[in-house]
Write a structure and sequence with these properties.
It contains twelve helices and 13 strands. It is α/β, with parallel strands linked by helices. The chain has a single domain, classed as Thiolase/Chalcone synthase (Peroxisomal Thiolase, Chain A, domain 1, 3-Layer(aba) Sandwich). The protein starts with 9 loop residues before the first helix and ends with a strand.
């Protein structure tokens, strides 16, 4: 894939009245627990039946990682820590070099303290001048955390490196009879380390967010907060964990993703053809195909990883990015768009020059 840096740099951003923030991704990492579980083995392990042919042909899911089905005693903070350490190693820095840790997730280790606080303790092991907090915006959490970290670094010169993690442990919230949930949702985490750009050809351009809170009662984990405490009565009624209360609009992401991408690019005086690579929420391969078709872009300019990981929520965008870089599909100087959406409705997007 040709690099886009020759035709677009910080000087071009100045001409369009937008500032290219001198922040770049310098390392990435992924983690998923245990050996992968195929669709056939999933039925055997759970005793549930589902349409594997449709799962593979439409959604593109062939296998996934689920810790508790493998008897692995790991949860959200474990996944996040291991992906974070992998990204730090990939960046070639020490854990002491991190001054900001953001964790994007809607499946936290606890309601409080924040998962990012646990991750800091496991990675840095003591009191440090490090800022930590979680971003919880459903499956858009990582993209919003990435945007926040880049802008925090740009405004605070004391933050030299930030660790941004997207992590998912939705299988921990699945009820035993949820065939749909087990076929789709899986465990995993992706992380990036961002640092100061070494060249004015690289940097963070910006974001476009969208929210519709009137859709909060479609799908979610509603028990465990202040509104609906977890009680024995609730468990007896099988109303704990992930609940699908209303069907999601069938065209939601095929409508949203191209619309938000165009809004993002218009904001920064770019056109779709200027982008070298797109990373979408990895919920459904056929929806990504439709979105790319609507944008007039070939599938070679996107990466999908649901075939190996299933759907990993806020972990899926950084996981797909990690593999795109490893597979040489994203190269230094490329203009990249992250496009994520989640229940609620929350949408986050990022535009940057890698």
């Amino acid at each position: 894939m040709p690099s886009g840096s020759d035709s677009f740099s910080i000087n071009d951003m100045k001409h369009t009245h937008h500032t290219l923030l001198p922040i770049q991704i310098i390392g990435s990492g992924v983690y998923a627990p245990g050996e992968p579980i195929t669709n056939e083995e999933l039925s055997a392990l759970t005793g549930l039946s589902f349409d594997a042919a449709k799962l593979e042909s439409k959604l593109g899911i062939y296998q996934r990682h689920i810790a508790h089905l493998r008897g692995i005693n790991e949860t959200t903070a474990d996944f996040a820590t291991k992906a974070g350490l992998a990204a730090i190693h990939d960046a070639g820095i020490n854990v002491e070099d991190i001054q900001l840790i953001l964790v994007g997730t809607d499946t936290p280790e606890y309601i409080t303290p924040a998962t990012s606080i646990l991750v800091q303790g496991r990675i840095q092991k003591e009191e440090k001048w490090t800022a930590t907090y979680d971003v919880a915006a459903s499956c858009a959490s990582f993209t919003i955390a990435f945007d926040t970290a880049a802008k925090m670094m740009a405004s605070d010169k004391d933050i030299r490196h930030a660790l941004v993690i997207g992590v998912y442990n939705m299988p921990a919230y699945l009820r035993k009879d949820d065939a749909f949930g087990y076929s789709i949702f899986s465990d995993g985490a992706g992380a990036v380390v961002i640092g100061r750009a070494t060249d004015d050809s690289f940097g963070y351009v910006g974001s476009q967010m969208l929210t519709d809170g009137t859709q909060h009662d479609y799908i979610g984990v509603y028990a465990g907060g202040t509104k609906i405490p977890v009680t024995q009565e609730l468990i007896d009624k099988n109303e704990q964990g992930l609940l699908s209360l209303k069907p999601l609009p069938g065209d939601r992401n095929t409508r949203l993703w191209p619309m938000v991408v165009r809004k993002l690019l218009q904001k920064y005086d770019l056109i779709v053809d200027d982008i070298d690579h797109f990373i979408f929420t990895q919920i459904n391969r056929s929806v990504i195909e439709k979105a790319m078709e609507e944008l007039g872009q070939p599938m070679e300019k996107t990466t999908t990883v649901m075939d190996r990981y299933g759907y990993t929520g806020s972990g899926c965008v950084p996981m797909a990015f990690h593999h795109a870089v490893r597979d040489d599909k994203i190269r230094r100087g490329d203009k990249v768009v992250f496009m994520a959406s989640g229940a609620g409705l929350a949408v986050g997007s990022n535009l940057f020059i890698y």
